[in-house]
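From: lab user (bench 3)
To: helpdesk
Subject: output format question, protein + adenosine-5'-diphosphate

Hello, I'm new to running complex predictions and I'm not sure whether the block I got back is the full result or only part of it. Here's what I submitted:
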Amino acid sequence: MSANENHTPNALPAGYRFNEFEIKEVIGGGGFGIVYRAWDHQLERTIAIKEYMPVSLAVRADDLSLELRGERFQKLFNAGRSSFIQEARLLARFNHPGLLHVLRFWEENDTAYMGTLYYSGMTLKEWQVTSPDSIDEAWIRRLLPPLFGAINTIHAAGYLHRDISLDNIQIQENQLPVLLDFGSARKEIGNLSDETEIMLKPGFAPIEQYSEEGEIEQGPWTDIYALGAVLHNLIAGHAPPVSVVRCIEDNYQPLVERQPEGYSLPLLHAIDCALAMKPADRPQSIDAFASLIDLPVSDVEALVTTFPVAAEAPAAEPVAIVVPEPQVMAVNHAAAAIEPVTPRNVRRLSPGLVAAAAIAILAVVVVVWKTNRHSETAPIAAAPSASAPVASNNAAGSAPSLATVYLRLQEGEKVLLNGEAKDVKPASSGFASLNLAAGNYRIEVHNGSQVLSQSLTIDKPGTWLINPGKP
Ligand SMILES: Nc1ncnc2c1ncn2[C@@H]1O[C@H](COP(=O)(O)OP(=O)(O)O)[C@@H](O)[C@H]1O
Ligand SMILES: [Mg+2]
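Helpdesk reply: Thanks, we reran it on our side. This is the complete output you should expect:
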């Protein structure tokens, strides 16, 4: 289908090539950019391409380059493009499965482009419209830990998102969320043209985003307000009143008073706190917000998001071996529940490939995964290659192993499985692995001064990543 048939004005036509990338169709975009689904002919996979295209300032000419609507827009156009470039650079610094992964950046057609991973699913805004019945407290509690992890990663690097909203969170088919964009170009153009309504999303932006620069300090609490507004929207069906209006007369009715059916008071109370008008009254960090709801801040769960990248079948399919449907499990020691996620394409992979994929994923995740045991939080170096961990152990004696469990381990740390010492050592990835048969296990890590432990029930084939904590 061509872009014109697609009725997206100013879009590049289907079939348009940027070297190995071929535009397939328009998948989204608003007034400041167009998002395309594209095919990477070299790596034979689907990617997404974001094009900087502020419709109020520019149009597409016949030669497909962008032309200003008037010379007077040059400054605004350039400022927006600079912000778009800054956003690409910022996103490229992170390697977090819950943050849009930028593959490439380039300038062409008198504008700028970002090649990114393609994520299945739809925005949370679309999800709310198409699957309203799925949204309940359990669903929200599953959504939050990886989302907390993504936002926390931005904060830990010293940045704020400032544009968290329903339409910037993609819910992938495996239900794991990805923060799609920071809206930098839109915010910059809105700011320079003094148009607050362009710059900020009413109902989501807290009061400090409306105030003059420096008047009220922005910080993690600024994103926490927006996240509170997202959750308010999911539960109440609408955003809270616009913060500038609340400033004059606060007609916000706390959720704990409204008590919508099916939601617990701790969750409702946490959202009310996040939506406090005064920044100081809100949770000051994602950790503080998460602990109000008794949820972990996780970037571990998010490792399975790597799977949807292979949504489109590669040219050479792996040999089909029928195995029981494996599951990739992500477990955080602080999580009350263990969430299994079944990636769509895993069934096509042999157990060996699943293990190799898991190790490759770990190599990515290790970069961003800060365990509670290493609070100095220097990023842990990624494994240089997807080599197998040094020590693999069939702990179950003669019983066939069903699952591979990976755990972070340092040299010198000792592992006990159900009280029995195991000879496992960390691989270069910083993880050790255990092959376990079905059963109940208690895994302890002794590091001299302390003992960390985790209980585990293996009842399905799969790959597990565990993070033992203090008992
Ligand atoms: N990498 C991606 N993979 C799949 N869909 C995407 C991707 N990036 C954006 N989209 C889709 O494009 C639309 C707009 O995305 P977004 O990045 O928020 O742009 P904007 O805020 O400029 O409209 C959304 O519907 C989203 O689902
Ligand atoms: Mg957006």
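A quick orientation on your result: The CA atoms of residues 159 and 468 lie 30 Å apart. Let us know if anything else is unclear.
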